[in-house]
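Q: I have 353 residues here and want to know how they pack in 3D. Can you give me a structure?
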Amino acid sequence: MAGKIFINYRRDDSIAVAGRLHDRLAEAFGRDNLFMDVDNIPVGINFEDYLNNQVAQCDAVLSVIGPNWLNAKDETNQRRLDKSDDFVAIEIAAALARNILVIPVLVDSTHMPNASELPASLKPLALRNAIQVRNTNFGSDAEQLITKMREALALGRRIQGPEPLQSSLIAAFLFNIAMFLIAVGIFFILSGNNAGVSEAWAAAVPFSWVARRTLDRDESVRMFGLVVSVLGLLAVAALIVSGQFFGVGLFDQAVQSWSAMIGIMFIVSALFFGQDRQWKTDTEEMLKPTWWYMGLGLFGFMMMMMPTWMILNRLTGRQDAALALACVQLLVLGVCYLQYRKALAANPAPSPS
């Protein structure tokens, strides 16, 4: 249902404010478009599956955070957010995994939790813009919240990250460039070139970092990804034209010719990070390839990594070094593919109505 809103709160922390928000939102959006209480869960079913399904049907989740929200503990003195059966954590984690609009609602003077204070599944919550609702100024604060929600819901779509297949492939490419640079650094260690080690490994750091954030479909990495892609493209271009224009003759003509494939991947990466429109694709239309389609894609992707094997082989003079790099890169690609499948599972296509 378009515009459905899930109100997430902890009873012993913010039940009063959550109740007032429910009543005010019911006036603005309709009571049928709200889901609030775990008391609505039918008996005898898996509550985690039920909550995940409820969250999946929503276009926005309000996370009401009061003064005791972060450090609330159970009867065993364990923090509730860290428990696997905590309703509050389950609901927020489900929304974040689906890239649903999550709005932290801070009660009175409550501060937004830092990522370091949250369990792994909730860390992205720390990056969401929050809005404050004060008991002493509830009317105007609630109106401001409703206005901002209308603006977001009027777009007719959820605020999402980039399409998982694209982000997984780009992340795999950048990770594999990082693996190549690390392998070059190892060669420099064996050859006693300390300056080369520092340069190779320093170059691997931004590729690894951007790849990690891209795999998480974190839009904040776009500018860094664009810079890394452009610098990588310039490095490949220098390798390709070195023999023709500079007379350097790095490696041989075969390496220079095959390196054009790496250049193409850097161009694709730059376009991916540099697109003007918001990183989003309707998850209902995401590509779910068959095994043979994905197999062909993986094979083609690995062929584009061939220049890195050739360069390492020319540097070391050992085919087993190139083979080891290819195996590591294949493992990286497998990890990224599993992340892609996980993203698909978190965004199931709706059943035909």
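Q: Anything worth noting?
A: Strands lie at 5-8, 34-35, 60-65, 101-107, 131-133. Residues 155-160, 280-287, 347-353 have pLDDT under 50 and may be disordered.
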